[in-house]
């Protein structure tokens, strides 16, 4: 069983997944007795690790090993790390390390493995190809760095039956699901999109009653004598400046306060946000403009904003969630 969560950087994918996993009473369950085992046994309910930036099997295995030992050490008194020897080797064999980790994880009945930043499994086309590609630049495809990683994930789902949650940006998830054989396995537990906020009519973003929208809640944190009123007009300004990316909204909130603190009247104003966007957060303006434009040519300048052939599954799961379906 596997599930896929996709969203632009800063939309809260990782935090949403970790909060869901953390609903478990404990990340590690210690059984006083266990069938066919003598003494106590520890069961690892879930584990979350990042795909390494190198995208290589040995580094992925090292992350998995380090994450496993760190989690068990945190929850189990007197835990003796299982992978100290393997991690200390100067010459590493990725396949052997991944298999070693899998054997230990299976022995501790791992309930779910979360692999974050799956786009790190892939690399951009060569600079030469990117320079020669013009009108159809959006069609440039990412390539897998090391096939072993993908094959090993498929083996986990097919043979060892360890549930996996895969999360990442649209480019990486799209590349991961280029083959139908992979896609049908990876979406067995659902394909879930976490989009940026797109409208002031979205109550999750802005609630005109002032009760529970994301922006309304942030609006409570104003460290000035004369706070800014959170109106629909202001909400529209925030969408214009941030593209609805939650991480950027928070960044603008902090930067606007910085602008406000440079004045003497101890107030927060809408123009403070525009000034912050033109100064402290100026580098993000082109990317936000591309995201808001929905123009493939502009979006293609930012690899991790690109949607890649995953609309089929977006439509499929949207249909499954429609009121007409159980």
Structure description:
- The protein is of the alpha/beta class.
- The chain folds into 2 domains: 2-193, Rossmann fold (3-Layer(aba) Sandwich); 214-288.
- Helix content is 44%, strand content 11%.
- It has helices spanning 13-21, 57-75, 84-88, 94-107, 127-132, 147-160, 170-176, 180-186, 214-218, 232-242, 246-261, 270-278, 285-293, 296-299, 311-320; strands at residues 2-6, 28-31, 41-44, 46-50, 112-116, 122-123, 143-144, 164-168, 191-193.
- The longest helix is centred in the N-terminal third of the chain and has 19 residues, at 57-75.
- The chain starts with a strand and ends in a 6-residue tail after the last helix.
Class inferred from helices and paired strands? alpha/beta
CATH topology of the largest domain: Rossmann fold
* Low-pLDDT segments: 134-138, 309-321
CATH-wise, what's the superfamily of the largest domain? P-loop containing nucleotide triphosphate hydrolases
Order of helices and strands: EHEEEHHHEEHEHEHHEHHHHHHH
What percent of the residues sit in helical stretches (DSSP H or I)? 40-55%
How much of the residues is beta strand, in percent?
5-15%
Q: Taking strands numbered 1, 2, ... along the chain, how are they ordered across the largest sheet?
A: 4-5-8-1-9
So what's the overall shape? Answer: globular
Number of domains: 2
Count every helix, treating DSSP H or I runs of 4 or more residues as helices: 15
Level-2 CATH architecture of the largest domain: 3-Layer(aba) Sandwich
What does the largest sheet look like?
Answer: 5 strands, parallel
Gap between N and C termini, in Å? 21 Å
CATH top level of the largest domain is Alpha Beta
Counting DSSP E segments of at least 2 residues, the number of strands comes to 9
Instruction: Give the radius of gyration.
Output: 23 Å
Rounded average pLDDT: 86
């Amino acid at each position: 069983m596997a599930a896929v969560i996709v969203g632009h950087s800063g939309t809260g994918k990782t935090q949403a997944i970790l909060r869901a996993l953390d609903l478990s009473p404990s990340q590690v369950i210690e059984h006083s007795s266990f069938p066919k085992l003598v003494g106590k046994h520890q069961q690892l309910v879930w584990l979350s690790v990042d795909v390494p930036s190198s995208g290589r099997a040995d580094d992925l295995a090292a992350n998995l090993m380090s994450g496993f030992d760190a989690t068990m050490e945190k929850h189990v008194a007197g835990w003796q790390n299982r992978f100290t020897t393997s991690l200390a080797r100067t010459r590493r064999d990725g396949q052997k390390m991944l298999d070693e980790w899998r054997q230990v994880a299976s022995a501790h009945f791992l309930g779910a493995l979360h692999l974050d930043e799956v786009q790190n499994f892939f690399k951009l086309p060569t600079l030469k190809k990117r320079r020669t590609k013009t009108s159809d630049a959006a069609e440039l495809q990412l390539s897998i760095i090391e096939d072993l990683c993908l094959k090993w994930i498929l083996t986990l789902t097919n043979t060892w039956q360890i549930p996996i949650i895969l999360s990442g940006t649209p480019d990486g998830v799209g590349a991961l699901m280029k083959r139908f054989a992979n896609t049908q396995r990876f979406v067995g537990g659902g394909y879930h999109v976490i989009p940026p906020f797109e409208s002031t009519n979205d109550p999750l973003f802005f609630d005109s009653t002032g009760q529970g929208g994301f922006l309304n809640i942030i609006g409570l944190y104003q460290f000035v004598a004369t706070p800014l009123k959170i109106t629909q007009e202001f909400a529209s300004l925030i969408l214009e400046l941030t593209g609805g990316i939650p991480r950027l909204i928070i960044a603008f909130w902090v930067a606007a306060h910085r602008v406000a603190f440079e004045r003497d009247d101890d107030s927060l104003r809408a123009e403070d946000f525009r000034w912050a966007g033109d100064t402290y957060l100026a580098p993000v303006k082109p990317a936000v403009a591309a995201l808001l434009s929905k123009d493939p040519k502009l979006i293609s300048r930012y690899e991790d904003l690109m949607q890649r052939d995953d609309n089929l599954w977006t439509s499929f799961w949207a249909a499954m969630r429609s009121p007409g379906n159980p």
